[in-house]
Amino acid sequence: MDDPPKHRLLTLLHALQQASKDLHTSTNPFSFLLKTDSTAAVGTVLDLETKAQAAFSSDPNLRKLSHMLSSLRTLIKKLDKFQGYAPLSLLHRHVTNYKISHLARAIDSEIQSYVDRVTVRDLVAALQEPSLEEEQQVKVLAEFRQRLSQGFDLGFQELVLRAKVFTLLECVLFENSSSKRVKEEAAMTIAALVKFNKNVFVGLVLMGPTIKALIAMASSCSMRVLSSLIRFIRSPLVDEILCSGEIPRIVGFLRSTDLGLRVAALDCVLELGYIGRREVVEAMLQRGLVEILMDLQRGGCCESECDFAFGSCVSRFAIQVEVGEGLSPEEKREVKLEILRIVKEASESEAEAATVSAEILWGSSP
Q1: Max CA separation in the chain (angstroms)
Q2: Which spans in 165-243 are helix H?
Q3: Percentage of the chain surpassing pLDDT 90?
Q4: Which terminus of the chain has fewer CB atoms gathered within 10 Å of its CB, N or C?
Q5: pTM to 2 decimals?
């Protein structure tokens, strides 16, 4: 369940953080160039500071922020003393505005640090308590991803690493007590961590059980996450998928009765074809990939999205391999000929073989 007092505190902090940003902008030393009026920002900050002092008194972790707000109020009062256009007054206002702007930025940073600690703490608590309501776990994971989406921050990364968040997320993927939805949210969060800092979290993905867990989940979401990781990590991850023997399972998902999983598996196969070495492409061909794609392209279905997803999928795969980065020019020619040979053997008629072969050689018709 949500904690109302904590929710009110965070709401106040977010409002104070935005007000501090506005105050920093409106009182910076070059604000006269932008003709920014700081009156509204000052009024907002003073109003929130009064509310904040009462709310912060019970939390020792907010003591530093409380002192900073008191200092800010003192500076603002000092600013009011220097009115008029005398040179000395203008100089004092300029210096005081600079101090206010600097302190407002520091307050913004201090609030963000506090909110980050709460975010990581709540995430760890949710992941370590499997009996927690699903909606609450999903909410905490979504909030954590939203923070990651704001871009790299060294302090936040240190919090994440110290709390062993990545390991906890991997455990969720294998935890029998976790619901499918929570596992999928955890999978998306792992992908968000990799995008947050590739240098740190790619190695954890390659060394850990994340990829096997994603494939074992066998859902459209887990396949989409896998595809996004392949696009981001590229050859090292594709090679790991090949070495771990997971290519047959990915190709096999194309025969699933779940339309969403089939569509996501096709996207994954196309990524593998574009990035993978010849061994990867051959592993897919040996598992009957072209024949399966022929069936999908031929069969169609009553759902409009299905026709769009699988239309010309044989030529789309062939083109991905041809324009991809994993094969040499000579290997690309050889693979293309192999795909054309399989198409000819798998076609139900000469007309079908001619049509699909033409799409591979010259592209599909609009």
Answers
A1: 93
A2: 165-174, 180-196, 198-207, 210-217, 220-233, 235-243
A3: 72
A4: C
A5: 0.88
